[in-house]
Amino acid sequence: NAGVTQTPKFQVLKTGQSMTLQCAQDMNHEYMSWYRQDPGMGLRLIHYSVGAGITDQGEVPNGYNVSRSTTEDFPLRLLSAAPSQTSVYFCASSGTSGNEQYFGPGTRLTVT
Amino acid sequence: GENVEQHPSTLSVQEGDSAVIKCTYSDSASNYFPWYKQELGKRPQLIIDIRSNVGEKKDQRIAVTLNKTAKHFSLHITETQPEDSAVYFCAASITPGGSYIPTFGRGTSLIVHP
Asked: What is residue B99's predicted lDDT score, i.e. its pLDDT?
């Protein structure tokens, strides 16, 4: 199993550009989440999904969209990138017991 | 919603010393308390967890204690080694049956000096 994969690893955007961060898992997990990690701020939840077709907002959803058309994939869309969205983004998945979060390797995004 | 406070934000110890990281939570319904370790440039990974029906759990040099009444839980690392240097996150959630989404503390940067 590859676990949780994310692409790209690094990305530089200009203000106003849009892009999609990809996340996939091959563990048949129901739950998937997106977090952003900023220095001193811990892991803040952006959006999450409890199954295909079901998504909900987390703590910091503004400027981001998600969809969950399949169990495996959970892409995160930045609609119009802003410098405040410069961060490291982690995708995570968890099984139906909702216990351990399996994190992807992260995407480091810089918005100039 | 749940609020998790974690202290200290930075902890510096000498190799061989013990390290303790403390977290408090606000939602008395939370019943699952994991700890994650994140090495520099890597992803967070689960190192130990505890459920609310257990007061203490050990795994070699690490242990977690939980005080449900006071709503706090702690990570204890004994005989620290340089490879223990990392950022540690505590979290709290309601699982199964709840939202399952963990709320994370802000992290503790542990530095172990050789």
From this structure: 62
Q: Which of B7, B35, B104 is the best mutation test for A, with the most CBs of A within 10 A?
A: B104
Is B31 within 8 Å of B52 (Cβ atoms)?
A: yes
The chain B residue lying nearest A33, using CA atoms, is: B101
Distances (CA, A) of B50 to B20, B32, B75: 16, 6, 11
In whole angstroms, give the CA distance from residue A9 to residue B113. Answer: 31
Please count the residues of chain B: 114
Tell me the per-residue pLDDT of B37-68, one tens digit each, with 9 for 90 and over. Answer: 999 999 999 999 999 888 999 999 999 999 99
- A-chain residue closest to B48, CA distance: A100
Asked if the Cβ–Cβ distance from B34 to A45 is below 8 Å, we say: no
A98 pLDDT higher than 70? no
- Three-state helix/strand/coil letters over chain A: CCCEEEECCEEEECCCCCEEEEEEECCCCCEEEEEEEECCCEEEEEEEEEECCEEEECCCCCCEEECCCCCCECCEEECCCCHHHCEEEEEEEECCCCCCCEECCCEEEEEC
